[in-house]
Amino acid sequence: MNRLHPALLYLTIYNPTLCPSEEVSKDDEDAEEQAQILFYTSQERAASRDKMLRQVGLAKALVNFSEIFHPTNSCHNVHSQSRRMIMLNPEPDFWIHAAVELAKTPRTLLPKPKGKGNGKGKGKEKEQASALQPSYDYHDGSLHDFALRARLLRGYEQFKLTHGSFTSILSSLGQEALELQLERFFTVWAWSWDLSKSSELNDDLGLSLHPLYPSILPLLDTFSSQLPAGLDALFLSPPHVVPSTRYRQSNHPPALSRHLLSLIPRHLPHHETDDRPEASSPTEKGATANTAAKEVGSSGNPSGGFLGMPSSLAMSMDVRNWSWPGALTFGKGAERKLPVTEREGIKPNPSVAESTSTVTEVDRGALEDAMSSANIHSLLEKANGGLSVTNPHAAHEGRSEVDHSGDTPRPSRVPSPLPADGLSTSPLEPEKPDRYRQLDFACTFVFLPESDDPLETRRRQVIHLRCLSLAVALIADADNVEDYDTHVISEAASQLLHEVEIMIVAEATRASEILPSATKILQPKDNHLISFDHFTAASPDFVAKSDHLYNGKQLLEQDSHITEVFSRGQQPQHWHVSKRDNTGGDEREIFLEVARKETSLSDVDNILQRLQLHPF
């Protein structure tokens, strides 16, 4: 039977201290209860008022009941046979409540044996109605409480970062404005929550630090020391980050680095086939196919299409054109069809033949600019003041960035940026050094809490300086970027990104030259995940999805006296360790997975000690 994935049933945000804005009858308790609900969305497109009040009332009752036994620690989650109920209290008197249905499998019902007598009347109708209702087997281990809470908390932090805290909006703009902003944000956020994907502990604990974090951090701190006071630097290289020491000391929320990383595109799409207008004539189709073929020949590393062909070339093929001369013959017995003049013995005119065999030339710069103008990232639009690039040299530069993306070796351990040696320059101008390369400049605004009160948020400005896939984000304390010398900052950022790029390429080259031994290839590797200050450092290509690690994390959160959790599975017999470590004064958590069967408990403890001394 097909297994059905978990699904969100409903999501609501309420404040039990709110009162109706208009006078209502004292006997109308439903109106008072409804005034406390700030946001509600359900899997049912039109949920009744009574059902909404019952669901919110149940959540309130569970919280109030749990506070009788634990006044300082209210109810966070409730398990039932078919669902999980999560209660999150991000701000005083504000609650986020979600109900998620577990994964389920339709149950196979065996036919009942026929009896001697057939029932009549209402009893028979009830049996038929119950037989028509489907029955399911629910999978209790398909969801993790920590993963659900972490997802809800990330949603709240994202809203707080882009709009402000619930308390600040309610006090400054009122309840109606708060309800409107919650509706616009959480409706989209709730139904973009993909519960079918398995939870990853890496993502729930924080963003991943760059594999070269120990080497990049001194360069970033040197760059940060050259900045004026009030600017905190954050290095971004999707999907990795490197926070400067000043950035970590400022205690910025974890949602800030995640939000800034989402604004940096991993690749610069040159064009998208979905937005390309369909060619209406064979000449246009031929020009499109020729352009795609030249792109494949220049790149040397086509991406992502059927049989390795790029999507642009695949979409330009038409089955009606397969009968063209030389099409899909693969060099086997292809006969060239002669023109009518040659078959009839008439010698063709050279000038006419030359004109007919020549494909109509198109302005490639204008064509590619038109195709890519709708696909450039919004960050570049902000950098250009909302104007599209019409310079043909800029189009050729963007194409060179994509075409030469496969020249640099890219091992799995260290992600290398797109090389810049293919940038086209004018023959009249000398090629500029890489450190003076022009950066993309953009600004955005976020709401960050004040140091004394986390609920009082203030609008702050963030400066983006990006070159290819590397970027530096500067969180400004001033309200206007013009208060800083942007020219000096841009030169220092360009030099920093140039040095980091050289370091990454050198490490990638060095890693590609090292040949692993047969023992290292065949022997299972020990994988680890270290979390501190909402950032993570993990083994290459390691994604922590084990239930043992999630259970260990939950035990560490439930009791502060628990420092270590060891577990070993049956099939396969892997060791899983969750440990809270305070070595060096910094609190961090270590998660370890050992896949070797012959490993003993003492061997696992030795591996933990090595990780504590050398986490990177």
Can you put this structure into words, describing what you see?
Residues 107-131, 269-305, 339-358, 386-433 are annotated as: Disordered. Pfam families: Intu_longin_1 (PF19031). Residues 280-291 have a biased composition (Polar residues). It is a single chain. This protein is of the alpha+beta class and 616 residues long. The protein folds into three domains: 7-108 and 130-191, 2-Layer Sandwich (Beta-Lactamase), CATH 3.30.450.60; 200-277 and 367-514, no CATH class; 518-613, Beta-Lactamase (2-Layer Sandwich). 38% of the residues lie in helices and 18% in strands. It has 21 helices and 18 strands. The strands form three sheets. An eleven-stranded mixed sheet has the order 11-12-13-9-10-8-15-14-18-17-16, with helices on both faces. A hairpin with a 3-residue loop joins strand 3 and strand 4. The two termini are 45 Å apart. 24% of the residues are buried. Mean pLDDT is 74; it is low at 268-360 and 370-435.
